[in-house]
């Protein structure tokens, strides 16, 4: 009877270790897949942006990562569809950024009421 409990505990420990190993392997595969996608994305950006424009986009990524991601995705889609014929310059990227900032900027009106 005591051996049955020991065998059950051992089987449970082995099952947990197997599940943990499977989870780690799945996590590692996901990390590798993301790294490959990021490398592909960076390669496309290297082809469609001048070095100065890439530097600017990297700076934007530090300050406004959501804007940088939006721009990267749009530029990659345009490049994959063949709509970008030559590398985008820093000046062109600044114009794109200015357009996005002007559309995403919110105006706030503050009203101060005096007490009677």
Automatic annotation (TrEMBL):
GO terms for cellular component: cytosol. The keyword rRNA processing does not apply. Residues 11-47 form a coiled coil. InterPro entries: DNA_bind_arc, PDCD5-like, PDCD5-like_sf. Keywords: Coiled coil, DNA-binding. One of its GO terms (molecular function) is DNA binding. Belongs to the PDCD5 family. This is DNA-binding protein ENW83_00750. It comes from Fervidicoccus fontis.
């Amino acid at each position: 009877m005591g051996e049955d409990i020991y065998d059950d505990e051992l089987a449970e420990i082995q099952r947990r270790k197997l599940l943990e190993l499977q989870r780690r392997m799945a996590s590692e595969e996901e990390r590798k897949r993301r790294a490959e996608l990021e490398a592909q994305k960076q390669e496309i950006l290297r082809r469609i942006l001048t070095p100065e424009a890439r530097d600017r986009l990297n700076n934007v990524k530090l300050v406004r990562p959501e804007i940088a991601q939006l721009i990267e995705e749009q530029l990659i889609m345009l490049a994959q569809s063949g709509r970008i014929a030559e590398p985008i310059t820093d000046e062109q990227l600044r114009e794109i950024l200015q357009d996005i900032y002007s559309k995403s900027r919110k105006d706030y009106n503050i009203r101060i009421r005096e007490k009677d």
